[in-house]
Design brief:
The chain is α/β, with parallel strands linked by helices. The chain has 2 domains: 114 residues, Response regulator (Rossmann fold); 98 residues, Winged helix-like DNA-binding domain superfamily/Winged helix DNA-binding domain (Arc Repressor Mutant, subunit A). The chain is built from 9 helices and 12 strands. The longest helix has 15 residues. It starts with 5 loop residues before the first strand and ends in a 5-residue tail after the last strand.
Length: 228
């Protein structure tokens, strides 16, 4: 199963932007792109939801170093500079601003893709909730004897991963809706409640007394994974 990781590409050369975007999408990544530093700066909240930023240095409106500094004030998101400014001084300046890597133009496509892969978080292939394991290749839940007991949808997997990444943290319904469904496609909060009911049927030994998926009245939900 290909990755659904999201990459933000900030590049003002439209031909190069389209080329990079096309090849990243061929690799299975989701790509959002901006052609100016000023536009990207106004969209920082959207960029922070990405898994990687590929950033040109010489941009109209706001340069790459300034954008990198702004991102580093609020996030540790991986940043790859991709710039025609390729001197040692330029590379050091980019790395000092907080970039994780710096690739001068012109570049080899295969090298770019390898550097992107190295910086992106690695997809977890399986994880467990209690005695139930989730296979990320097949999107199946399996019992302690490795027998399939449920076929997950992509939304169910995305929600499970969100809970696993925020174990013991209370997540509001609005936060869950924003991160899983996005700001532009809002179902009702009842949708989340129905997902949780489904999870409890799969994972909880006693649905009336949950030990994994806890309701926090008036707020949302908290996930606690009990270790065997």
């Amino acid at each position: 199963m290909k990755s659904a990781l999201r990459i933000c590409l900030i590049e003002d050369d439209s031909t190069l932007q389209n080329f990079i975007r096309f090849n990243l999408e061929l690799e299975g990544y989701e790509v959002i792109s901006y052609a100016s530093g000023s536009t990207a700066f106004l969209e920082l909240s959207s960029i922070l939801k990405c898994d990687l930023v590929i950033l040109d240095n010489m941009l109209p409106g706001k340069n790459g170093i300034d954008l990198c500094n702004e991102l580093r004030k609020v996030s540790k998101i991986p940043i790859l500079f991709l710039s025609a400014k390729g001197t040692t001084h330029d590379r050091i300046e980019g790395l000092r601003a907080g970039a994780n890597d710096y690739l001068p133009k012109p570049f080899d496509l295969e090298e770019l893709l390898l550097r992107v892969f190295a910086l992106l978080p690695k997809k977890q292939l399986s994880f467990k909730v209690g005695k139930i394991s989730i296979d990320m290749d097949t999107l199946e839940a399996k019992d302690a004897q490795s027998r399939p007991i449920h076929q997950f949808s992509k939304k169910e997997i995305a929600l499970l991963q969100l809970f696993l990444q925020n174990e013991n943290k209370v997540l509001s319904r609005d936060e869950i809706l924003d991160k899983i469904w996005g700001e532009d496609v809002y179902p009702t909060s009842r949708t989340i409640d129905n997902f949780i009911l489904g999870f409890r049927k799969i994972f909880e030994p006693d649905q009336k007394n949950p030990i994994y998926f806890h309701s926090i009245r008036g707020v949302g939900y908290k996930f606690t994974n009990q270790k065997d």
